[in-house]
Design brief:
heterodimer, A: alpha/beta, TIM Barrel, 9 strands, B: mainly alpha, Rossmann fold
Chain lengths: 445, 56
């Protein structure tokens, strides 16, 4: 629906309404549809700091479904039928309260066609059973901040993407699209598009697009099957990033951005300001596509130990806060995934400018009693069940941990039971113990 | 990591070496599971461990 004229909380209500009645989904039965709607209601209740009927159990799932199904990561990235079968089996056997979407694993074929240099993936630098690995480098050079700030899209097309994708190297010869102004100058503009290497780059991009269509049809069908037969909503609708992480993860790299804080702080701050509206727009557009208001924001380089609190206040938080507020004003729910430890940041993130009951915060190695003290009554929170326990602990260890966590921090609602980190490996009985204990012990009476 | 520790055992070298594992998801559960001697969350912990092992 058109929500342009509504206030943020009215937009959010409208978005949750859309989320509860997905378009084009044929549920297997009225009971399944009801189960879907009850789960959406549980998510809405916890976001808005109410007690749901019970604690929603939404483990953050990575490559574990493939370990469980006995297929390799390589198969999951190249054989879409196997990808779909593994995920369908995983959801049917474990029945968590949320769906882990198939598209996040990507298509190895698409990456191959474009010669994606930012990652190693099975068959391309790591063994068939190993998840992809990021190759950090200064894909954006230290002296390129002004180029980026002046024209982010042009910078991506002419500098960043030609370095990250081998197949798009020739794009460095293409002029910015904003040069296309009037007839006499359009002729010279279009000439570089005719240069054979540029032609080849566009042909590769078309080929990648065709390969992506084949992949998304299979991946989308797998998710649709899980949603319609089990009634599991996804917990994630859209995706965006904190500006410091956008620059630090895949553009400048960790080492370089930490040096930039000292060597060229003003440029770094200006680049992050430039990224704020782009990050809000990306989150809002991606959530809009799926008619789902929750926007996932993984947090990386602001974790404990990465920088001082003073630097966090200067470099990390202001632009992340602006992205959070932009999404909240658009009637969306930022879902902050605080990887690593966030113990020293808890007082900084509980910012009174962020309205109550509009965000989700998931933690890993953060003291959850402290989280409850600081975030309780302000924001929905969850996470923290160690993936090491799911891999190397016993069923009893898991049950004890989950019960203690629920006793300690879940009593007032606003809580999601989840893993601390993304789950790539586990003993199946331990994951069952997490989910079953949460469902039984997490009922609010 | 578990396989690497096992390979050192199979080669008869385990008693002669010290093994530390590291990274954000390491804890005592994973140390025991892999059979390593110690774990650390980051490079600074690795440095402290190495110093304590060589008596520096």
């Amino acid at each position: 629906m058109d929500t342009q004229m509504l206030a943020p909380h009215e937009k959010l209500e409208a978005h949750f309404k859309d989320f509860a009645s997905p378009q084009g989904v044929q549920f297997a039965s009225p009971e399944t549809e009801q189960a879907y709607q009850r789960r959406v209601q549980m998510i809405k209740d916890v976001v808005q700091l109410r007690k749901p009927e019970r604690v929603p159990v939404c483990p953050t799932i990575g490559f574990y479904p493939f370990v469980y199904a006995g297929i390799t990561v390589e198969e999951a990235m190249y054989d879409y039928a196997k990808l779909g079968q593994a995920l369908t089996k995983f959801h049917a056997d474990f029945v968590p309260d949320s769906l882990s979407g198939a598209p996040i694993y990507g298509s190895g074929k698409v990456f191959e066609i474009l010669d994606y240099k930012l990652y190693r993936w099975p068959g391309h630098g790591v063994p068939s059973t190993t998840p992809y690995q990021c190759v950090e480098a200064e894909y954006m050079h230290a002296d390129e901040y002004d180029l980026f700030i002046n024209d982010p899209s042009g910078y991506f097309m002419r500098f960043y993407l030609p370095r990250v994708f081998g197949a798009l190297g020739a794009w460095q010869m293409v002029a910015p699209l904003t040069d296309i102004l009037e007839l006499p100058f359009f002729g010279p503009y279009i000439v570089p598009i005719g240069i054979p290497p540029v032609q080849q780059a566009f042909e590769k991009l078309l080929e990648a697009g065709r390969a992506a269509m084949e992949w998304i049809q299979a991946a989308g069908a797998a998710d649709n099957a899980t949603l319609s037969t089990l009634g599991l909503p996804a917990l994630i609708g859209g995706f965006t990033k904190a500006p410091f992480d956008t620059l630090g993860d895949t553009m400048r790299g960790t080492r370089a951005i930490m040096l930039d804080k000292f060597r060229q702080p003003q440029k770094l701050l200006a680049a992050m300001d430039r990224l704020v509206p782009l990050a809000i727009d990306m989150g809002a557009r991606s959530a809009g596509l799926g008619h789902h208001p929750i926007v996932f924001i993984p947090l990386h380089k602001g974790a404990d130990g990465f920088m001082s609190n003073e630097d966090y206040k200067t470099f990390y938080w202001p632009t992340l806060k602006a992205v959070i507020l932009g999404l909240v004003n658009a009637g969306l729910v930022p879902y902050l995934f605080a990887e690593g430890g966030y113990n020293q940041r808890l007082d900084l993130i509980t910012d009174p400018d962020i309205p109550k009951g509009t965000t989700i915060w998931m933690f890993d190695q953060t003291d959850m009693k402290e989280v409850k003290k600081r975030l309780g009554g302000w924001a929905c929170f969850g996470g923290n069940v160690p993936v090491s326990l799911l891999k190397a602990g016993t069923v009893e260890d898991v049950k004890t941990y989950v019960k203690r966590l629920i006793d300690d921090v879940a009593q007032d609602g606003g809580f999601i039971l989840s893993t601390g980190a993304v789950l790539d490996d586990a003993k199946p009985e331990n994951l069952h113990a997490l989910i079953e204990t949460g469902k039984e012990y997490g009922v609010y009476r | 990591m578990k396989n690497t520790v096992q390979a050192l055992k199979d080669a008869g070298l385990r008693a002669k070496v010290k093994i530390m594992i590291g990274g954000g998801q390491m804890d005592d559960h994973i140390r025991q599971y892999t059979g390593a001697d110690a774990y650390g969350k980051d490079a600074m912990v690795a440095l402290s461990l190495a110093r304590s092992w060589v008596g520096a």
